[in-house]
Each structure stands twice: as structure tokens, then as C-alpha cells.
Write a structure and sequence with these properties.
Nucleotidyltransferase, domain 5, 19% strand, EC 2.3.1.234, five-stranded mixed beta sheet, 10 strands, alpha/beta, 335 residues, single chain, iron
């Protein structure tokens, strides 16, 4: 009987471990962010990320075992994709080693599914629902009928929303990670000061595109002097407003199209305060909105452990050769 699941997350630049109990919920979690490591390069360096996961995982395991009183898991859930292939392999091989030593099975988990299920950590059941998954690497709308039963409604045709935030921040010299820095700058700006496009809102459908908005942002930023703090804040606020309006409108369309009255917001951009405020505004229209708490919007192991707990039928021997994938469609049957 599988009751306690150790979750391992290493898909990009966050190293995480968590212990989840199917009866008692989340027992403990630890997380290490590599932001300081990658900041001098303006973005994630895959090889550096992989090496740091190798260093951090044993230390974090000791920390988690101390935090949870040395409780051993009955199975290990590990992110098997999508993500940086080297970083994924570090986490998966660490999981296999532990599983062989403890003689317990391994459960491969889809990283995006972990994000979609993260609101369940708050002990609510939001399904069936429309889910907005919005992060640095992904922007998509998914109809979630139940855990493991997903229908893709729309996705980005180019940049993800979080990627657009980061690139816009880089154009303004705001450093890494750019998204939160741009959002902070936007708080002091006038969102009506610049007229920026709302991509694909003038046509039907649920796909997204942010490359045109990014280009418009670049052109608008060129005449602004580096020391003109107010205009920089105004442009940041106008950019954020364009992204938020685009995401909000597409969510409205998806809810109408599916007839559902529940919305899940997941992924790192779900921590953006302007987006959270806008989507929470749907409550007045009779929509239930479920947003993961701030700690579980970004990459974490708690959501991976939870996903493993909901998919114990996927458990297999540590020696099983399940694939590790840099790219992996959420709607594939193997997910």
C-alpha cells in the first residue's frame, strides 16, 4: 500500500524535495533556487543547473528527513519531463538510486500536470475545470475533467507569457529573473500610457501569441531615456496590462466554450498580483477561481509528490527504463 510519496523536482533551476501523505497531506518540503547562480548570465545555463542539482539533492534529502522525523516514503514521484534534459536526468537518476536502496517503486510525473494539480494542496477539489497554465516555458488553456483526463483548448504559438515578461525586462536592463522585476516596476506606472497590442484577441480561438507584443514593447522602449523612471514604469505597467487582458479574455472564452464555471490558475506567472486580481474578478460573474498559493505557483516538489499520490497506478520498479523527455505533450496517453 502506497501512502507516503517522496516528490523530486529538478526540471529547470529549482531543486525540490517534498513528502506527501495520502491521508494527512503535505508533511514537509524543501526547495533551493538557483537564481543567484544564473543571474550573472541573464538566464538559466543548463549545464550549471544540472551540476547544482547534483550537489543539492543529497543535502536537501537530509534536510527533509530531519524536518519530517526521518519518515521513509512508500514510493518516489519524480519529474520525468518536460524540462532541461540534463537537469531531469539528475533528478530521475537520484530517484532511481533511492528507490533501489529503499526497495520502493518510482512514479514518473509530468511537470505540467504537477502545476495543474497544485491547487489540490489547499485541500480543495476544483474539477472539472478550465485550467490556465502560465509560466516561463508554457502558456496554455486545458479542460481538466479529472486528474489524468485533459483536453488541450489552446496554447501559445510562439513565446510563453512568462518568457515575454523576462525578455521585456531584459530589454529594460532589469536583470534576472526579469518577470518579477518588471511587475514590481509596473506598480508605479500608468497602464494606459502606452498603446500596446492584445495579440489574437481580434479573432476567434483560444491560442496565444506574445511575439508581436514583445516587438511593440521593444519599439516603445527605444526612445525612453534610462533615467526616465516614470516612463519606464508606465511602459512596464502598459505591457503587464496587455498580457493580463489577453490571458483574462482567453479564460473567459474558454469558460464560455466549455460551459464550465471553475477556473484553475497554475504556473509561475500565476504569482503575478495583477493577473491574480483580474482573474479573481471572475468570481462576481459566478466563476469559482482556484489559484495555487504563492509558494506552489513556481516549480516545487510538493506538486510532484501530490501528482504521484494521485497516480499510484503508474508506480514501477526502480530499474524500469521509463523515458525522460525534454518535450512532452500534456495530452499524450503516456502522461
Amino acid at each position: 500500500m502506497i501512502e507516503r510519496i517522496l516528490g523530486i523536482e529538478s526540471s529547470c533551476d529549482e531543486t525540490g524535495l517534498a513528502l506527501y501523505d495520502r491521508q494527512r497531506g503535505l508533511l514537509g518540503e524543501v526547495l533551493f533556487s538557483q537564481i543567484a547562480l544564473h543571474a550573472p548570465y541573464g538566464g538559466v545555463v543548463p549545464e550549471l543547473a544540472s551540476r547544482d542539482h547534483v550537489r543539492r539533492l543529497p543535502l536537501l534529502l537530509d534536510e527533509l528527513l530531519a524536518q519530517t522525523g526521518g519518515q521513509r516514503p512508500d514510493a518516489i514521484a519524480v519529474t520525468a519531463g518536460p524540462g532541461l534534459i540534463g537537469a531531469l536526468l539528475v533528478g530521475v537518476n537520484f530517484a532511481r538510486g533511492l528507490a533501489m536502496g529503499w526497495d520502493i517503486p518510482v512514479i514518473p510525473v509530468h511537470h505540467l500536470e504537477g502545476h495543474l494539480l497544485a491547487p489540490l494542496l489547499n485541500e480543495v477539489d476544483p474539477f472539472p475545470a478550465v485550467a490556465l497554465l502560465v509560466s516561463g516555458g508554457h502558456t496554455m488553456l486545458v479542460e481538466v475533467r479529472a486528474p489524468g483526463d485533459y483536453i488541450l483548448l489552446g496554447e501559445t504559438l510562439d513565446d510563453a507569457a512568462g518568457e515575454a515578461f523576462d525578455k521585456a525586462a531584459k530589454m529594460m536592463g532589469l536583470g534576472y529573473p526579469g518577470g518579477p522585476a518588471l511587475a514590481a516596476l509596473a506598480e508605479g506606472g500608468d497602464a494606459q500610457a502606452f498603446r500596446l497590442p492584445r495579440p489574437l484577441l481580434d479573432r476567434p480561438g483560444l491560442d496565444f501569441s506574445f511575439s508581436g507584443l514583445k516587438t511593440a514593447f521593444r519599439l516603445a522602449s527605444m526612445p525612453i531615456a534610462p533615467d526616465d523612471g516614470q516612463k519606464r514604469a508606465d511602459l512596464a505597467a502598459s505591457f503587464q496590462a496587455a498580457v493580463v487582458e489577453t490571458l483574462f479574455t482567453k479564460c473567459q472564452r474558454a469558460l464560455r466554450q466549455t460551459g464550465l464555471r471553475r477556473l484553475i490558475v497554475a504556473g509561475g506567472v500565476g504569482a503575478n498580483r495583477a493577473l491574480r486580481a483580474a482573474l479573481n474578478g471572475l468570481v462576481s460573474a459566478g466563476v469559482e477561481v482556484f489559484i495555487a498559493d504563492l509558494a506552489h505557483c513556481t516549480d516545487n516538489a510538493a506538486m510532484i509528490a501530490l501528482a504521484g499520490a494521485l497516480h499510484t497506478e503508474r508506480a514501477q520498479a526502480a530499474t524500469a527504463d521509463f523515458p525522460v523527455r525534454a518535450r512532452w505533450s500534456l495530452t499524450e496517453e503516456e502522461a
